[in-house]
Amino acid sequence: MQQPSTRNEIRKHIRTLRIALTTPEQTLASLQLIEQFKQLPELTQAKNVALYLANDGEINPELAIKWCWENNINTYVPVLHPFAKGQLLFLQLTPTTELITNKYGIFEPKLSVNHIIPVADLDVIFTPLVAFDVHGHRLGMGGGYYDRTLAPFIDTHGPKAIGIAHDCQQLAKLPIEEWDVPLNKIVTPSKTWNWSLSS
């Protein structure tokens, strides 16, 4: 089958593949993902880590979140900024955090200024994605939220960005725009891709 060529065609194609995964397949993917996750050197000294709450067939990092809690790593998830359009805030997630749904139908913590962490204080940001290629390019849902979040830290010692995806979300090559922020590392159930070693 020929690969879809436009960004929107790719999004539609990969989301269809992702949503078609059965519950047992999703469960197995999560179990395999956590084994890859636990081997990441970025987590050895990490104190503050951002993950996400799965939606739309995304690989579920729930086991990774629980592992962080068990290892005394503060865990945060994205919240749509209420005033700055297209921006994310990161709020702490605990077992007792009250969750609400945002305008996209995605669960997020109820906004509280006491639980916000500045992005610069995060050690690692695990990003969801729709598709990725063998060069570390990431295709998101199209809102640009993570690209805006990560752009200020591309050439700094700020938080490390690591993508998380199903294996079926990998393509040979993505059409890239100038605002896209590539990732040095992407974790799938079967493999951890690391482009920083070859750059």
UniProtKB/TrEMBL annotation:
<dbReference type="InterPro" id="IPR037171">
    <property type="entry name" value="NagB/RpiA_transferase-like"/>
</dbReference>
<comment type="similarity">
    <text>Belongs to the 5-formyltetrahydrofolate cyclo-ligase family.</text>
</comment>
<keyword id="KW-0460">Magnesium</keyword>
<feature type="binding site">
    <location>
        <begin position="138"/>
        <end position="146"/>
    </location>
    <ligand>
        <name>ATP</name>
    </ligand>
</feature>
<dbReference type="Pfam" id="PF01812">
    <property type="entry name" value="5-FTHF_cyc-lig"/>
</dbReference>
<feature type="binding site">
    <location>
        <begin position="7"/>
        <end position="11"/>
    </location>
    <ligand>
        <name>ATP</name>
    </ligand>
</feature>
<feature type="binding site">
    <location>
        <position position="58"/>
    </location>
    <ligand>
        <name>substrate</name>
    </ligand>
</feature>
<protein>
    <recommendedName>
        <fullName>5-formyltetrahydrofolate cyclo-ligase</fullName>
        <ecNumber>6.3.3.2</ecNumber>
    </recommendedName>
</protein>
<keyword id="KW-0479">Metal-binding</keyword>
<feature type="binding site">
    <location>
        <position position="53"/>
    </location>
    <ligand>
        <name>substrate</name>
    </ligand>
</feature>
<dbReference type="InterPro" id="IPR002698">
    <property type="entry name" value="FTHF_cligase"/>
</dbReference>
<dbReference type="GO" id="GO:0030272">
    <property type="term" value="F:5-formyltetrahydrofolate cyclo-ligase activity"/>
</dbReference>
<dbReference type="GO" id="GO:0046872">
    <property type="term" value="F:metal ion binding"/>
</dbReference>
<dbReference type="InterPro" id="IPR024185">
    <property type="entry name" value="FTHF_cligase-like_sf"/>
</dbReference>
<dbReference type="GO" id="GO:0009396">
    <property type="term" value="P:folic acid-containing compound biosynthetic process"/>
</dbReference>
<dbReference type="GO" id="GO:0035999">
    <property type="term" value="P:tetrahydrofolate interconversion"/>
</dbReference>
<dbReference type="GO" id="GO:0005524">
    <property type="term" value="F:ATP binding"/>
</dbReference>
<keyword id="KW-0436">Ligase</keyword>
<keyword id="KW-0067">ATP-binding</keyword>
<keyword id="KW-0547">Nucleotide-binding</keyword>
